Amino acid sequence: QSIEAELRLALERQEFVLYYQPIIHLLTGKIVGVEALIRWQHPERGLLPPEQFVSVAEDCGLILPMGRWVLHEACRQAQAWNQAGLSPVTIAINTSAHELRAKDFIENICETLAETGLPPHLLELEMTETVLMRDTEDTNSVLRALVEMGVKLAIDDFGTGFSSLSYLKQYPTDALKIDQSFVSQMINNKDSAAIVSAVISLGINLRKRTIAEGVETAEQHALLLALHCDEGQGYYFSHPVAAGEFATLLASGI
Ligand code: G
Ligand code: G
Ligand code: MN
Ligand code: NA
Fold first, then answer.
1. ipTM above 0.95, yes or no
2. Residues near ligand 1 (Cβ within 6 A)
3. Which has the closest alpha carbon to 157: 188, 131, 137?
4. Which residues surround ligand 3, an ion (CB under 5 A)?
5. CA distances in angstroms from 185 to 33, 42, 201, listed in the order given
6. Structural domains in the chain (count)
7. Taking the CB of the first residue and of the last residue of the chain, which one, N or C, has fewer CB atoms within 10 A?
8. Residue-number span of the structural domain to which 158 is assigned
């Protein structure tokens, strides 16, 4: 059986699950956001990471129904936490190029927010530079529509894509997620530290939040704080965890 056929079945059988990784406000240490990360609970092969199936789903078009499921499930879950009285957190969702260019993308987001009751400002869509650089005209109107709805936009893996800085002016983005490759090397490598520092300055000057990805050590945490990075995400704070475990973290007031 091809992986494509397997993926189709997995969607029907609801074998996908979302894991949640906290995003911490560095100054207060509080959880202010969470990134939803898809996993495939495979009946024989166990819990599979997205590297093993997301690109296949993109190539065969299954990324659209999969993305709709992720959006709906993440918004439903975030609103359930809200209604349970936990402190509101922004739910961040990875958005692929296919999804962004789908005709019903905006409509789908509108409907999902209406159905789940999640306030639009608590939804943040993460897109890579590569996703943003395609069809700039169309992309711009889609992004403007999202901003009008109050949905937030973050540039994922910032600094690793193939792009120019001019799109920072062109697109109404709210946040820059500093790629973990820079963060992981910034203690031992001056050039990586310089890049992290420059991206944070760029964020400050453009009034965009900066979020450091892949924070693993106390040294990295301290340096990011000193550089005035807004938020952090990584194993130092928490691995991606199942929904129940995330609710426990949130309830503990971290
Ligand atoms: O969970 P993990 O750290 O292994 O995720 C690896 C990558 O897989 C992420 O950086 C992200 O780009 C991608 N990914 C995870 N979840 C989703 C999802 O729901 N949709 C899409 N399109 N990509 C995802
Ligand atoms: O969306 P994106 O492709 O950036 O997804 C982030 C990926 O990075 C996820 O697959 C997540 O599991 C992984 N990740 C999260 N925190 C850390 C970390 O501290 N170190 C490393 N090496 N990977 C991380
Ligand atoms: Mn991401
Ligand atoms: Na990223």
1. yes
2. 37-38, 49-50, 54, 70, 94, 96, 240
3. 131
4. 94, 126, 156
5. 24, 34, 18
6. 1
7. N
8. 3-251
Could you list the pLDDT tens digit for every one of the 254 residues in the chain? 788 899 999 999 999 999 999 999 999 999 999 999 999 999 999 999 999 999 999 999 999 999 999 999 999 999 999 999 999 999 999 999 999 999 999 999 999 999 999 999 999 999 999 888 877 778 899 999 999 999 999 999 998 987 778 888 888 999 999 999 999 999 999 999 999 999 999 999 999 999 999 999 999 999 999 999 999 999 999 999 999 999 999 999 87
Q: What is the pTM of this model?
A: 0.97
CA of 114 to the centre of ligand 2 (A): 30
Cα-Cα-Cα-Cα dihedral of 178, 181, 185, 190, to 10°?
A: -60
Å from CA of 70 to ligand 1 middle: 11
With a CB cutoff of 8 Å and minimum separation 6, the contacts of 173 are 143, 153, 154, 155, 208
Q: Which residues, judged by CB distance below 6 Å to any ligand atom, belong to the binding site of ligand 2? A: 21, 37, 94, 156-157, 180, 213-216, 234-235, 240
Tell me, in angstroms, the distance from the centre of ligand 2 to residue 215's CA. Answer: 9
Calculate how far, in angstroms, residue 37's C-alpha sits from the geometric centre of ligand 1.
Answer: 5
Residue 122: DSSP 8-state: G
